[in-house]
Each structure stands twice: as structure tokens, then as C-alpha cells.
Amino acid sequence: MPSRLVFRVPGIAVLAALLFAICATPFAFAAPGLVAVYVIPIALVVWVLRVRTTADSNGLVVREVVSTHALAWTLLKGLRIDAKGRVAAVRYDETEIGLPHVRARHLPALALISGGRLDDPSVGLGDGGPADEPEGQVVDEVVPDATADSTTASATTNPGADPGAEKVTEDTGRRAAEPE
Q: Which residue stretches does the UniProt record annotate as biased composition, category Basic and acidic residues (predicted)?
């Protein structure tokens, strides 16, 4: 088990900022004052190198561009996940601190590194097979009809249709592959 986890943008992203600086050079020297365009790649490099979330057995350290927050596991009420999968640490006084670069898919790793102070949300979910689905719920899958020939069925319902083409189901708008 690792002693700490670091969530950050890969350092190779600094090359994108350097490429931007090279491409901006003709523009920067086109007129006086346009040299200020170099602030953009400098800010990008600072952001890539500075912003991160570090988790270890003591807690979380959230580094942003101009601030750092150290959060012990004992000070956290829990984690909040928004609709886009971003994660925020919630203190007992209900204040939230966003965890840069931490997403919902990282929660099992955070639960492991916290030493059991955070619950692992993936425990008990199973493998997602048919046995894990509640009874009576419709499963979104295509079941081929063994009694009908797919080539004749598509030719009779749509005379100009390509027999090997995919058809779009009307109820979901998704493409369903024709059975072979």
C-alpha cells in the first residue's frame, strides 16, 4: 500500500504552456504592450506545478494556486460529490473545500489511504451482473428474436433499407445492432 496519494495534472502539461509561449512570440512582439500575452503560459505553468491534492494517513493537503489547506481526517465530516463527479471535503461546520483533481472514481483509493476513516463507496456493489439488479427493473439490452430472420424482417419493414445496417430503437434513440 502506498504511503501517500497525489492527485495532480501530469507535469508534461508544462510543454503545452511552452508551446503556447513559442506560438505567441510573433503576436507578442507585433505591437508594444502585447508582451503581456506571456502571462498566460506563465500562469498555466504555475497552475500545473502548484495545484494538487495529497492524501496520506494523517489527512489531506489541498494546494491551490495561492493557498494551502491541511485537513486532518478527524476534522472531516465526509466528502461531497457533485453532479460532475468532483469531490469536496466537508468539515463538521459544513464548510466545503474542493479537492482539485480528485474525482468520484478515486474514492476507493482515498478510503484505503485514510485507514478506514472514510467509507469505501464501492464495497458491496458487486460486479454489476444480472444478479445485482433488482427484480422487476428493465435491463437495457437487445435480445435477438430467434424465430425471425433479421434480413427478411428489415427488408419487409423498410423496403429500401440495407440488410446489414444498424437500426435505431424508437424508445431510447440508441442504435441496436442487428443479430447475426
A: 164-180
In single-letter form, the type of residue at position 41 comes to: P
Model confidence pLDDT, tens digit, residues 41-54: 999 999 999 999 99
Residue 106, Cβ density class (10 Å: 0-12 exposed, 13-18 middle, ≥19 buried): middle
Which residues are CB-neighbours of 167 under 8 A, at least 6 positions away?
154, 161, 175, 176, 178
59: Cβ contacts below 8 Å, ≥ 6 apart: 70, 71, 72, 73, 74, 75, 76
* C-alpha dist (Å) from residue 17 to 48, 98, 170: 10, 25, 47
d(CA 22, CA 30): 14
Q: What is the identity of the amino acid at 71?
A: L
| Full-model pTM | 0.62
- Identify which of 20, 62, 23 has the alpha carbon closest to the alpha carbon of residue 43: 20
Q: What is the pLDDT of residue 42?
A: 95
Question: What letter represents residue 173's amino acid?
Answer: G
Question: In the predicted model, what is the mean pLDDT of the chain?
Answer: 76
Non-local (6+) Cβ contacts of 81 within 8 A are: 87, 88, 104, 107
**Cell representation of residue 33:** 504592450
